[in-house]
Specification:
The chain has 555 residues and is mostly helical. The protein has 22 helices and five strands. A five-stranded mixed sheet has the order 2-1-3-5-4, covered by helices on one side. It starts with a helix and ends with a strand.
Length: 555
């Protein structure tokens, strides 16, 4: 179409497409928000490896420093969020408000994912529909869904991963967005760095070639952009030593980073280095199988097949996106497989996110294939019935739909099947993923407070019990409100000089110059002493179960 009529039609078409896209983004984001809101943890929780939530909340309330690498961006955001929601929802559990931050971040990642998917599917009929299904698939996949329900750093990580795709592809002519997202993403979670080889490939071999100006100049510009992102990310860590050097330091102060040694110990993750490539070689195949299982269980084997169809489409029609995908998933997959912890599958969130884009592309690939093959199948069926379409005239010709009509029918059919399947998965997994009924951490804290005594020393070791106690002491404050002179010590952390220095400053009369927990017990034999769990290296005859904790009876 050309001339005045085309000039009148194209703006309306673009306006309608923009309206559809915005409506789809809003609907998918709203769906995700209500799904997460209805299944979010109502308070302190241990669901979905969420024990860190108690520590993160305690660090935010006391302006402290959480576990490595310190998460300065998340803590500042959490502090602002707790202040705002404290005004909007007074007298509510701060652990619930922390979960609500994850709900908002994760729902935001769904909206951004819809926009990124719309970019990749922009040449398809009703691209907004397929983009919406991509966003819904991301929202109901168990890995992102589980992290959207708890106070943890990964919902914000999910948002930055989606924003990275948005800045790299949707805003490809506005490099400042890419600079900002990379800086914030690196500052927030160090595994974000593992995505940068794919980003560099896209900038170096695609953007630089297609951009304005000589490719070599463009490549130098992108190298400078990456360097600037690294510098900005490093600058955001200035919050860590500033918090540690406060006149009254927070009791949550990993690394006690008021000096260079403590700061580097924290931000470099020195305490966790032994986990990387720490798995026995005999477990490698099992861990690879767990990696494959994680990807398969997101949308079942059927969904995985659709994802692989989408990846095959990119391999055939857009090889640079195939290369991008391989560079995106390989480093983070190697890291997750070789990081020897029980929750290492969480690091696969960026891989799951990319696989949802493959899912959207796979759906439209299926539609195109079925629309092309269906008339042939119908003709073959008619031929087997003894009816030749070429000789039956108009009466038979009407039984083979025209291509536009067939495409519409296939689009509606595949979209409906996909939507029903995703909603069925949501209902099927609801009870398993929902954190709404997980009260284990809250029960442990409540029952511990019930059996404690004045002047108690309470020693913990495992993350779950330790962080629940820290939350009760310095997050919600309920533990110290009941027993303000309680001394909280961590047996596992006592090996580090920074921790001994921290607790000596915090409890000078109890800890003093003690170099071990055993010395502290000996010099405080007149105080009630409890352990949060029965330590395997402590004599069982010296322990007595009291509620959920253990009383130390002495040697």
């Amino acid at each position: 179409m050309s001339g005045p009529l085309a000039a009148m039609t194209q703006p309306n078409t673009l306006s309608t497409s923009l309206w559809h896209r915005r409506l789809t983004m809003t609907a998918a984001t709203g769906f995700a928000f209500f799904l997460y809101f209805l299944t979010a943890a109502p308070g302190l929780t241990w669901a979905h490896h969420g024990a860190d939530g108690g520590e993160l909340l305690a660090a935010a309330v006391t302006n402290g420093v959480p576990h490595p690498p310190g998460y300065p961006l998340y803590i500042v955001l959490l502090q602002g969020w707790l202040w705002l929601t404290g005004i909007l929802f007074p007298n509510t559990d701060i652990a619930w408000r922390g979960s609500l931050l994850s709900v908002v971040c994760a729902a935001g990642s769904v909206g951004v994912t819809v926009r990124v998917a719309a970019y990749f599917l922009r040449k398809s009929e009703r691209s907004w529909l397929w983009a919406g299904l991509t966003g819904v698939a991301w929202s109901v996949a168990p890995l992102p869904w589980s992290q959207a329900l708890i106070t943890e750093v990964y919902a914000l990580h999910m948002l930055f991963v989606a924003l990275l795709g948005w800045a790299l592809f949707v805003k490809r002519r506005q490099d400042y967005w890419l600079l900002l997202v990379m800086a914030l993403g690196i500052a927030h979670h160090l595994t974000f760095v593992l995505l940068l080889p794919a980003v560099l490939y896209e900038c170096w071999f695609v953007r630089a070639v297609r951009g304005n100006g000589p490719p070599q100049r463009q490549r130098w510009r992108y190298l400078m952009l990456f360097a600037a992102a690294g510098v900005l990310a490093a600058l955001l860590h200035i919050r860590t030593p500033l918090a540690a050097m406060a006149p009254v330091p927070s009791p949550v102060n990993w690394g006690y980073p008021d000096n260079w040694d403590g700061f580097w110990w924290l931000v470099s993750g020195k305490a966790y280095r032994s986990y990387l490539f720490g798995a026995p070689s005999s477990t490698l195949l099992a861990r690879v199988a767990a990696w494959a299982s994680t990807l398969t269980t997101q949308l079942t084997p059927v969904g995985l097949a659709v994802m692989l169809i989408g990846l095959a489409n990119w391999d055939r029609q857009q090889p640079h996106l195939r290369n991008f995908s391989l560079l995106w998933l390989t480093p983070i997959s190697i890291y997750a497989i070789n990081y020897y912890t029980r929750d290492s599958e969480i690091y696969l969130l960026p891989v799951v996110w990319l696989s949802m884009l493959w899912f959207g592309v796979g759906l439209i690939t299926l539609v195109a294939w079925l629309a092309a093959e269906w008339p042939l199948w119908q003709q073959q069926w008619l031929a087997r019935q003894g009816r030749n379409p070429a000789t039956n005239g108009n009466a038979l010709a009407g039984r083979i739909p025209s291509s536009p009509r067939l495409n519409s029918q296939m689009t509606n059919g595949i979209a409906l099947i996909a939507l029903v399947g995703l909603l069925a998965l949501t209902g099927w997994r609801w009870a398993t993923i929902s954190a709404r009924s997980d009260f284990r951490a809250a029960y442990f804290l409540r029952e511990t407070i019930a059996v404690l005594e004045p002047h108690s020393i309470l020693i913990s070791s495992a993350d779950s019990e330790t962080f629940a106690l820290w939350y009760g002491a310095w997050g919600s404050g309920e533990l110290l409100e009941r027993y303000p002179d309680t001394v909280l010590l961590n047996y596992a952390l006592f090996q580090f000089p920074w921790y001994r220095r921290l607790v000596a400053a915090q409890y000078p009369m109890v800890v003093g110059d003690s170099s071990s927990v055993e010395e502290i017990l000996a010099r405080n034999a007149d105080r009630p002493i409890f352990f949060s769990e029965a330590l395997p290296y402590w004599p069982a005859e010296q322990m007595e179960a009291v509620g959920p904790i253990w009383r130390y009876l002495g040697p």
